[in-house]
Amino acid sequence: MTDKDARSLPPEQRLAAASWLTAPQTRRVFDTLEKAGFTVRAVGGTVRNTLLGEPVNDIDLAVDASPQAVMSAAKRAGLKVVPTGIAHGTVTIVVDGTPFEVTTLRQDVSTDGRRATVAYTTDWTADAERRDFTINAIYCDRNGALLDPVGGLADIAKRSVRFIGDAHARIREDYLRILRFFRFSAMYAGGQLDTVGLADCTMERSGLQRLSAERVHHELHRLLQAPFCIPVMERMDEHGFINDIMGARADTKANVGAVAALVSNAAATTTPRIPDDAELRLAALAVSTPGDVAQLKDRLRLSNSETQRIANAAEVAQSINPQTSTTLLHELIYRRGNDAVSDGIALAWARYTAITDVDTSNADSDAFVDLLTAAATWSAPALPLGGRDVIARGVAPGPRVGEVIGDFERWWIAADFPDDRELMEKKLAELILVTNR
Fold first, then answer.
1. Most Cβ neighbours (<10 Å): which of 33, 123, 239, 252?
2. If 0-12 CB within 10 Å is exposed, 13-18 middle and 19+ buried, where does residue 413 land?
3. Cis-peptide into 272, omega within 30 deg
């Protein structure tokens, strides 16, 4: 039975049939830890995604033994073990290339809104109650038998993302949970927000300022990839969270609208492919002019590659509209490259759609599609003449050579990259004659 077939089964049968749970590697980890006298269960996204019929990418296990005891048991069994997060009770056991994150049951001793001091425990309910959402606090053993201390199964059935216990307390333990609430709702709740959770996040929103830029960036990036990010971000904007994250913007509603337009344009147009990913969505959300890029980089600690891509897209977008000429488009491709120009066209189209409220069937949209097609298919030629050609015609080596080549390149681009050798030779001779006067 495949994981897809198992979706129609009751929860425990669905888990028992899951390929990750029946895999030999998983069985070996369970065998190893249970032979040592420990109780081990899968937890978190591993169980949640199985129950929701979503892909399982990582296998997380919880165990009622210390990290040191877990490592000793794994080593005795000849398994590779890495202390990946031992300060937080987590070690990674690797079996035939498959990693398993094994975390000791914990309870919080103290928190400061960003990180917690924890103590190990053997109490499964205490471990569940320190987690964020009910759907992330469901456990299952090797046979798929469920342990549900906080009512996560009911919320799985409703596809509801709900804080465990007192939401204010959960949020104050780590203010990143505000963004996680929005991201998980966009991932698993069809974009619907739990009313109580939203109200409590709104009351605690000032705590977002205590988070590091890197953590906010990472969570925002994942939110922007979620299938229902648009309705969630619209609600976030209504309650001021977009300003909290991005800093004051003149019109955050328009920027969220540009993200929505980017998504809808990409969904409605299959040929050519419209760039649409988290980086470009971030550009639509936060960059209205190229000058905004530096502020965004500083605010979210963007990598150099992210910054360069967003900057290129923003600069190209400034030059793009439905009336953009083929000559200008070719110049942009020549100077920026096909990928950057495709990004810029997609970004410009998204902004245009958001501002004019046009749909994907009108003439202007057709014009953007034509631009994208050209950006995907036209290859910029290399400059056909160089310094040697200029020197061969009697210009002494030095700055004048560069001036002639610069003048020739500008003419060649404005003429839309002709490949007529005779025409180019004639133009080069004219430019040299001018410089000799």
1. 33
2. middle
3. yes
Whether residue 287 contacts residue 314, with contact meaning beta carbons closer than 8 Å, is answered with: yes
CA 26 to chain centre: 29
Q: Tokens for 143?
A: 């046979």
Return phi, psi of residue 272, to 5°: -75, 170
Tens place of pLDDT per residue across the chain (437 aa): 456 665 667 787 889 889 999 999 999 999 999 999 999 999 999 999 999 999 999 999 999 999 999 999 999 999 999 999 888 899 999 999 999 999 999 987 656 555 666 789 999 999 999 999 999 999 999 999 999 999 999 999 999 999 999 999 999 999 999 999 999 999 999 999 999 999 999 999 999 999 999 999 999 999 999 999 999 999 999 999 999 998 766 678 889 999 999 999 998 887 788 888 999 999 999 998 888 999 999 999 999 999 999 999 999 999 999 999 999 999 999 999 999 999 999 999 999 988 876 555 577 889 999 999 999 999 999 999 889 989 988 888 999 999 999 999 999 999 999 999 999 999 999 998 876 65
| In the block, residue with structure tokens 């502020």 | 295
Rounded to an integer, what is the distance from CA 337 to the centroid of its chain? 23
Count CA within 13 A, CB hemisphere, residue 423.
8
How many residues in total does the chain contain? 437
Angle separating helix axes 176-188 and 195-203, nearest 10 degrees: 160
DSSP 207: G
Q: Which residues contact 260 (CB under 8 A, 6 or more apart)?
A: 230, 234, 354
Half-sphere exposure of 340 (CA within 13 A, CB side): 23
Nearest to 336 by CA among 306, 375, 366: 375
